[in-house]
Design a protein that fits this description.
This protein is 35% helix and 21% strand.
Length: 260
């Protein structure tokens, strides 16, 4: 059994017990100097995919898990992901074909290939097809994390964009909230929920959409956690002129209170 697959045998590192969510520590949204991001994992080995997604979600990333190349095509992975982890030997569209099509469309997201093929020529073929890195199975999860961090550090530093909402400012690149010059420390998952609601300010956002934004598509997480995060955000943001209202059966909406 691959060493990486052993990760799938343990429980998810983030407890889904709602009582534990209130205990989530305050942290800044960075991971050993790298901003937390959205990762698409395309892997048809279900146990390995689960292990990788649990590990990356534990560091705060959102992870979309897709089971084959055809699903990835339908999802248009290059439109949403900050980074892609791709298995070469996929059912349906194989990994190298999918990679070539992705690059042909002009999608230049960083991409790591996963494969059991260890020959030098296989690595050369993968890299020439457009991969940024190549990881041979079996591998240690620590090495995969290090390679993800290395690729993200190579990205051009995004231009800071500040959005104003209520009496707060939101730095979209650093994913930080400010009241004046004072940073407001917010847990990583709450920031993801806030960001999802802010992007649709004034419009209703479903629980499913919020969950996908915070954890990634296919994450094994109950939508009841959304209620917990929204409740905490309400209490945190109300003093700054920001309201989150619930629309029964539809979702939530973030609104600014009218200035008096």
């Amino acid at each position: 059994m691959d060493r990486a697959e052993n990760v799938a045998k343990r429980e998810p590192p983030l407890s889904l017990d709602v009582r534990c969510l209130a205990c989530e520590p305050f942290i800044k949204l960075s991971w050993q100097g790298v901003s937390l991001i959205r990762i698409t994992l395309i892997e048809d080995n279900a146990s390995l995919a689960k292990g990788i997604s649990y590990r990356l979600q534990d560091t705060g990333h959102a992870v979309d898990v897709l089971g084959d190349g055809a699903m990835a095509e339908a999802y248009k992975v290059d439109d949403d992901a900050d980074l892609v982890i791709l298995e070469i030997n996929l059912h349906g569209t194989d990994g190298l074909t999918f990679l070539a099509q992705m690059r042909a469309r002009g999608a230049m997201r960083p991409l790591i290939l996963l494969t059991a093929r260890a020959e030098t020529q296989d690595r050369v073929t993968g890299l020439d097809a457009g991969a940024d890195d190549y990881l041979i199975k079996p591998f240690e999860m620590d090495e995969l994390e290090a390679r993800v961090r290395a690729l993200l550090r190579r990205r051009a530093t995004p231009q800071t964009k500040m959005l104003s909402v209520g009496r707060l400012r939101y730095d979209t690149s650093a994913r930080q909230l400010f009241a004046g010059d004072q940073e407001i420390e917010v847990p990583r998952r709450e920031i993801s929920v806030f960001e999802c609601l802010l992007n649709a300010k004034g419009r209703i956002v479903s629980k499913a959409t919020i969950l996908d934004h915070a954890y990634g598509v296919g994450a094994d997480v109950s939508d009841t956690v959304v209620e917990v995060y929204v409740s905490r955000l309400r209490s945190r943001l109300l003093q700054y002129g920001i309201r989150i209202t619930a629309q029964r059966g539809l979702g939530y909406r973030l609104m600014e209170e009218a200035s008096s």
